[in-house]
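Quick log. Single chain, no ligands specified.
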Amino acid sequence: MKKITRRQAMGTTAGALTALGLTGATAHAAATDSRASIPTGTVDEVYQGRRIQITPGGGGHHGGHHSPGLPTVRIDGRELHVMRNADGTWISVVNHYETFADPTSLARAAVRELQGSVLAPFAPMGGTA
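-> predicted structure:
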């Protein structure tokens, strides 16, 4: 009976894990199509006592330049800097390590995170607000 070597076992394990990773990544990519369009609707709502306004495609002044196509998200009239990830999800400077499916859910999460605090102006490194 031929015994498998440690090197062969590690190679087989690595190959299996790679295959599983690729399958998971493919399933995730199919679930979140990066070509999905940027939301085009306007939102004006009060959430937990804070006014959220989202206007499509204005882009805002992110870092002193316009970001074409990105919606402008405001909480109580102050702009929330938002970014779109390659997989179509959204993040903001308030929730930078948590992704959201759309700008509305992102803005609501920012309101919860702010816990009543006023949104401070965003000034990127080396820039001014």
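Residues 32-36, 62-66 have pLDDT under 50 and may be disordered.
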